[in-house]
Amino acid sequence: MTNSFRIFIIDKIFIWHNFIYFYVMLFIQIASMGLFYQVSYKNSSPACHMSVLERGIMNKKTKFIVFLFVLVFFFSCVPKEEIKPPPTPAKIAVVLGAGASKGFAHIGVLKILEANKIPVHMIVGTSAGSFVGSLYAYGYNAFELQRLSFEIEKGDVVDLMIPDNGFIKGEKLEGYINRILNNTPLEKLRIPLYAVATEIQSGKEVVFATGNTGTAVRASCSIPGIFRPVTIAGKTYVDGGVVSPVAVNAARKLGADIVIAVDISGDVESSKPEGTIDTILQSITIMYSKLAAIQIANADIVIRPKVGYIGGTDFTKRHEAVLEGEKAAIEALPKIQEIVNRLKQEGRLN
Prior knowledge:
Elements: H1 3-43, H2 52-77, E1 92-96, H3 105-115, E2 122-126, H4 128-138, H5 142-151, H6 154-157, H7 171-180, E3 193-199, E4 204-208, H8 213-221, E5 230-232, E6 235-239, H9 248-253, E7 258-262, H10 275-296, E8 301-303, H11 318-345
Parallel strand pairs: 1-2, 1-7, 2-3, 7-8
Antiparallel strand pairs: 3-4, 3-6, 5-6
Helix pairs in contact: 1-2, 3-5, 3-11, 4-8, 7-8
């Protein structure tokens, strides 16, 4: 017998003990009053005697008052069931980190989550994470994303220019996103998407939740020195990885209870840069990996695909990146399922 059950039994005994005690005392009091009334009535003068009608009315009043007292006491003694508020539904966020062409690994992660019916209530994406996240949030399933990733070419999203605050304009990337999403704005995507960028003048993290999806993704992907910065409403934005390569803190602020973070910036030991752009991207990836470590500590689950050998502009290894994403997600799956099952038991997930 558990302590809580013992306490429950003792509490019930105490309540009913008080209830019975009240009835016994009430009976004794009424009996005493009746005896006193009989003695008083016999010893009193005839002039003081009540009529039969008056005594009947008095008895009815007395019984009614006693009945009210008993009723009030009864309801005060009956234990009341504690009404608990319904559990707050849990929100699971998938945070997709920055990493240029290594971002194809995000597709592999989403494939495993989807195949195992892990609910995703919001996506927070930085740079390549916002690119992949926008397609998934729109409604493409993970296998359709994989097909799209194998079909896309550099020329679809990269518009090289004479270096002027960057090598790439970014207009093609913006146009590609808007075209493939049928110009759906952020606020109307099937899954809420939050694209993380950096306001270059203040250095502040900015999370786009409404407006033109292509423009928000372009701003989030505008790697300094590679892409030309994006101007929106008079402010200039660059890649969100400058402040939040894996935006776990943003997900928490947006109401996420569980954060599944995908970090593709940490494995940088084996990739050798080729050319100016690759060298810049490799340097930025190293910086991102140091910054990411700060926020990753606040995630519930961290998935780290081993994509360090893939260059920042290497589209030829996209299939390998997807497979690495799958492998890393499968490793993390038992812990993810444990969390999901716990939330279901608590009534916070359907």
